[in-house]
Design brief:
Elements (H helix, E strand, L loop, with lengths): L10 H13 L2 H13 L3 H25 L5 H10 L1 H30 L5 H4 L2 E2 L2 E2 L1 H20 L1 H24 L1
Antiparallel strand pairs: 1-2
Helix pairs in contact: 1-8, 4-5, 5-7, 7-8
């Protein structure tokens, strides 16, 4: 196999890819919305959510060691409930994966609209993207797609940097 056709993602980059996927864009909005609704008690909602996600993650980790095959999201459903549910789980997983790039692009523009610059505040108005916001979202969809398409190495470096940012910013802000 030639060097250019090899794709290798190291364990740290793989872990950061999973962590970045779990965090998603919720870190941009989740804390603010939770604080508006529940005030200081929002921390309990985060702890409950953490416990639930941990239970799911540990279940998938156990299933992954029991059935060390690719396509676990589909295979586990097929093993436990038959081929119809496996098929449905596969399609649901595919739709979720396909939706990630446009969701992240829209969330990025929505977050940019909270900046104090007048051009940024005009991107998202009355709960909808403005024309400029739509154009920036479309450009971000293209950038995010190309980042994933060009190479695993480029993707993992960019994703690792973004994930570290996603962890450090809320961590630094929580100290103050």
């Amino acid at each position: 196999m030639s060097k250019t056709s090899q794709r290798h993602i190291g364990p740290v980059a793989l872990m950061l890819t999973g962590l970045g996927s779990i965090i998603g864009s919720g870190w941009l909005f989740g804390a603010a919305h939770a604080a508006q609704i529940a005030g200081p008690a929002a921390i309990f909602a985060w702890l409950i959510g953490m416990a639930i996600i941990l239970a799911i993650a540990l279940t998938y980790a156990e299933l992954g060691t029991m059935f060390p095959e690719t396509g676990g999201m589909v295979r586990y459903a097929r093993y436990s409930h038959g081929s119809l549910l496996g098929f449905m789980a596969g399609w649901a997983n595919w739709i979720a994966i396909v939706a990630v790039i446009p969701i992240e692009a829209e969330a990025s523009v929505q977050y940019m609209s909270s900046w104090s610059f007048p051009w940024a505040q005009a991107l998202y108005q009355h709960g909808e993207l403005s024309t400029t916001g739509l154009l920036i979202s479309a450009a971000l969809v293209l950038v995010y797609f190309l980042l994933n398409y060009w190479s695993a190495r480029l993707f993992t470096k960019a994703n690792s940097a973004i994930t570290v940012f996603k962890v450090l910013v809320p961590g630094a802000l929580s100290v103050h």
